[in-house]
Amino acid sequence: MSTRDTSAEVAVLVRQTLALPESEPIEPQQLFFYDLGFTSMDLLDLLFRLEQHFQIEIPEGTIYHLARADLAESEFAEDAVLTEAGRARLMILLYDTPKELFPARIHVTTLPRFCTVGAITRLVDHKLAEQKCSS
Amino acid sequence: MFELMRSISIDAENGRASGVAYVPADHPLFADHFPGKSLLPGSLVLELAAQVAGPLAEEFVKTQLKIERWSILGMVRDARFLQPVFLPASLEITAAISRSQSSNVSANVTVTVNDERVMQAELVMMMLESSAEWTAAIEARNDRLARWKEAS
Predict the structure, then answer these.
(1) What is the pLDDT of residues A76-124, one digit of tens each?
(2) 3-state SS string over chain A?
(3) Selecting from 3.40.50.360, 1.20.140.10, 1.10.10.10, 1.10.1200.10, what CATH number does the domain A6-124 have?
(4) Which of B61, B65, B75 to mutate to test the interface with A (most CBs of A within 10 A)?
(5) What is the Cα–Cα distance from A59 to B88, expressed in whole angstroms?
(6) Phi-psi domain of B114 (left: phi exceeds 0; alpha: psi -120 through 50; beta: other)
């Protein structure tokens, strides 16, 4: 069993991205864009830091593919906007994001905006487990 | 900054490019930076590097990802300014793609002056779809790029 504390490591990288002091608490339920004031460039910077630190790859569209899972592309999104089924899938994946934050129309390029720190930590854990399985 | 570039050579297949920029000592931009001792600001060293990394990123996504996008400098990571660049100076710039996605392309850039490395960084170029109002700017940029390529 791994003793790696991914959550603490992600918190350090979030602080580095925003140049926050070590004393600044970073909690799993915090939302990047709503609570931490992230911009899309901050998120990109964090993804680069995560990739470098954990030696993983997080290609664009990762949240999209994880949420869609086995649902057909056309059932998940139409004209780059999530369908009702797609929106429901996203809400299941991002279960710790307050439901009221998901608008009726969600453009597929905005999915990372709804992530909490905890969701990104789960994503890192998922990528690390994938890597372990393939090695 | 465009008139400072002299030449550029792009190898999109291998994700590499090189270019040369010449910055004269009497350029009006640097009159106060500093009087009697012209020094190229680090931000402009980065901008010149982006003049090479940008066209490389565009040709790379066109060749490798089969999409047409226009680049703007989005982020500078791990920049190291190793030596001051006193003017006049001829800057040799190299760029190599380190990662690429349809929305952004990263390139490791190095700038040397007189065979001495003065700056290195990773530039993240944001890749945007063009819109109608960009047409004139894109045409002007393509003209410049053609001249720079011809000069290499």
Answers:
(1) 999 999 999 999 999 999 999 999 999 999 999 999 999 999 999 999 9
(2) CCCCCHHHHHHHHHHHHHCCCCCCCCCCCCECCCCCCCCHHHHHHHHHHHHHHHCCCCCCCHHHHHHHCCCCHHHHEECCEECHHHHHHHHHHCCCCCHHHCCCCCEHHHHHHHCEHHHHHHHHHHHHHHHHHHC
(3) 1.10.1200.10
(4) B75
(5) 43
(6) left
CATH number, domain containing residue B115: 3.10.129.10
Selected residues 50-109 of chain A with any CB under 8 Å from a CB in chain B = 59-60
- Asked if A41 and B104 come within 8 Å (Cβ–Cβ), the reply is no
Q: Does A19 touch chain B (CB under 8 A)?
A: no
Q: What is the pLDDT of residues B121-140, one digit of tens each?
A: 999 999 999 888 888 988 99
Q: What ipTM describes this predicted complex?
A: 0.79
**In total, how many domains does chain B have?**
1
Residue B101 to chain A, least CA–CA distance (Å): 7
- pLDDT, greater one: B29 or B110: B110
**Domain spans of chain A, in order of start:** 6-124
Work out the minimum CA distance from A60 to partner chain B, whole angstroms. 7
Please name the residue of chain A whose CA is at the shortest distance from the CA of residue B122: A48
Q: Hey, is the C-beta of A40 within 8 angstroms of any chain B C-beta?
A: no
Q: Under an 8 A CB cutoff, do A45 and B101 touch?
A: no
Find tokens 């190599």 and name the residue.
B96
Mean pLDDT for B51-63 is 97
Query: Does residue A1 surpass a pLDDT of 70?
Result: no
Residue in A41, A59, A60 nearest the CB of B75: A41
